[in-house]
Amino acid sequence: QVQLVESGGGLVQAGGSLRLSCAASGRTFSGYTMAWFRQAPGNEREFVAAVMWSSGRTNYADSVKGRFTISRDKAKRTVYPQMNSLKPEYTAIYYCAARSTPALTIRLLGYEYNNWGQGTQVTVSS
Q: Quick one: how far is CA 3 from the chain centroid?
């Protein structure tokens, strides 16, 4: 079983930056997809960004393209979304997720991921 632990959330002013971390443990991650989702109060969980562990291929939600960059450090088994030019509407709990079943494309729906972290709060003030 993969365990995911997020960190790096906090309070930041609009236009600022944050870098979240997701430390993964448990087994080899070859073939895995690592993703970030977020959920704001009253809203459904939504896809933010993802990276394929082996190839490094990435995908982003349209709302964060050009602002977020996701990367992975294989040696540290950690995934990092660098979030720049933050907006108040980005305020949410951000969750790290892992999909263990290999896929040809990055999956965008939460049910397609079978491991989840506990989440970290990101608050962007205006």
A: 14
